[in-house]
Specification:
Length: 295
């Protein structure tokens, strides 16, 4: 049976982002990086000081991953690019889906082998979004097609299972994952939320193999066990949680990004801190954030 808990949340940054997303923990520099997609910003937040810096990258930015010292890899609207976090310089890598003007790239992260996975989103009338894997040698691979919004993704602690969310379908899928080849097979439904009024968005996975999924329009983050059963629901003071990640010295602090985009004035009054960055201390340990690296 699921527990419903009101953890003591801390609003660590009153950022009022339009579409805060994609938080990652930089264990070397002890920073949280996150994006504000429609404001074209990559944020760098220091929990120790409360200071937040941002880089205007000049385009919609859907996902980021650390890529060595002072560098991030980014999924922009139709491009991959590097961001130098010392200079703010954006260096394009390659264009993808330039022939699909209604698409843009969305969520992504690196697997334990340092390969960058990222997906696109499309108009709901045409399920032509895809999931990609960008390898260390610069090769690009299409991993899944026929999606609407490729979203929250991650790997089990034993690296045998890959998870992928398709938000409008209200489903989180599980695949068999081959860590050596990077291939995924045997897609099945891990969580089906079609009976709910909210949508699974970004996710993170803890060291026990449980999935923490932010629920768009749901005012909560839900923790699922490895069987796909809801075991914990964390209430939030905002309507549109978007993603989450574990950070801190012990990887036990859950950071949660949120959005304000599309809310009416009445909804904003009920959800006043929409777009802010939240944190809560848990009693479980998350998995580390993996770097992208080049051969």
């Amino acid at each position: 049976m699921s527990q419903v808990l009101q953890y003591p949340l801390q609003n660590v940054l009153e950022s009022r982002a339009r579409l805060g997303e994609g938080p990652i923990w930089d264990s070397t520099r002890k920073l949280i990086y996150w994006v504000d997609i429609y404001n074209h910003r990559v944020h760098q937040f220091n929990p120790a000081t409360g200071k937040d810096l941002f880089f205007d990258v000049g385009d919609v930015v859907g996902a980021i991953a650390t890529a060595g010292a002072d560098r991030l890899i980014m999924a922009l609207r139709h491009h991959l690019a590097f961001l130098n976090t010392q200079t703010g310089v954006v260096t394009p890598i390659l264009e993808i889906e330039g022939n699909l003007p209604d698409n843009r790239f969305n969520d992504g992260k690196c697997d334990p082998q340092g390969r960058f996975w990222f997906g696109s989103m499309c108009s709901l009338e045409k399920p032509q979004a895809s999931l990609y894997r960008y390898d260390n040698d610069g090769s690009l691979h299409v991993m899944e097609t026929g999606l609407t919004i490729s979203n929250g993704l991650g790997w089990s602690p034993d690296q045998k299972t890959f998870y992928l969310t398709d938000s409008p379908q209200q489903k989180i899928y599980a695949y068999d994952f081959n860590s050596v080849t990077g291939n995924i097979t045997n897609r099945r439904i891990f969580v089906d939320l079609t009976h709910e009024s909210f949508y699974p968005d970004g996710l993170t996975i803890d060291s026990e193999g449980h999935i923490w999924s932010a629920m768009w329009n749901g005012w909560c983050v839900i923790r699922f066990n490895p069987k796909g059963e809801e075991i914990l629901r964390i209430k939030l003071p905002v309507q549109l949680p978007t993603s989450c990640t574990f950070g801190g010295e012990d990887l036990q602090t859950l950071y949660i990004t949120t959005a304000s985009v599309g809310l009416s004035q009445a909804e904003i009054e009920k959800s006043f801190y929409s777009g802010d960055l939240f944190a809560l201390q848990t009693d479980v340990t998350g998995l580390p954030t993996y770097d992208f690296y080049e051969i």
